[in-house]
Amino acid sequence: MSIYLDYYENQLGGGGSSLKTIYSGARYQRGRGIGAWLGGLLRGVVPYITQGMKTVGREALRTGMDVYDDVASGNATFKDSIRARGRESGVRLKRKAKNKIINLMSGNGYKARTAKRRRQSRKKRQGVRKTASSVQKKRRRVKKDKKKPRQ
């Protein structure tokens, strides 16, 4: 029975002769930790990794088919064919990776977008322009309205 009493006394924050401890958390804790940084990094890198794995898988399939053709035709033993075709596929993968990196790095970086100025047609510009006489007419109308007594 005392287990339940201790539990509820602890919940109430009082009772009993001793002071109960209260969790206050870390004093200088801020930010989201290294997990947030790594998550952002992985979010940017994962598409490239998946594309690379697809390329490696296709190349492995191609190499396997070439090895099978060599062994089936009797041109080379399995071991010799694996060595030769493995070197060829390694060269092809290096070339593809190099081309991919060159294509990624060939940009000019981020540039701020400039606001495009839209030109108005002549009709719209003529409607917007105010001549000195039209401004004076408007002022006269305002003065007349002020002079009229209210009824």
Describe this structure in words.
The model has no long low-confidence stretch (mean pLDDT 78). The protein is mostly helical. It has a domain at 54-103. The protein is built from five helices and no strands. It has helices spanning 2-12, 34-73, 78-105, 122-128, 132-147. Helix 2 (34-73) crosses helix 3. Helices cover 68% and strands 0% of the residues. The longest helix is centred in the middle third of the chain and has 40 residues, at 34-73.
Question: Which descriptors would you attach to this protein?
Answer:
151 residues, mainly alpha, flat
List low-pLDDT spans. Answer: none
Task: Give the number of helices.
Answer: 5
**Roughly how many Å is the radius of gyration?**
40 Å
Largest sheet: none
Q: Kindly, what is the distance between the CA atoms of the first and last residues, rounded to a whole number of angstroms?
A: 89 Å
Q: Choose one word for the global shape.
A: flat
Q: Tell me what portion of residues adopts beta-strand conformation.
A: under 5%
Seen as an oligomer or otherwise, the chain set is single chain
What are the secondary-structure elements, in order, as H or E? HHHHH
How many beta-strand runs? 0
- Helix content estimate: 55-70%
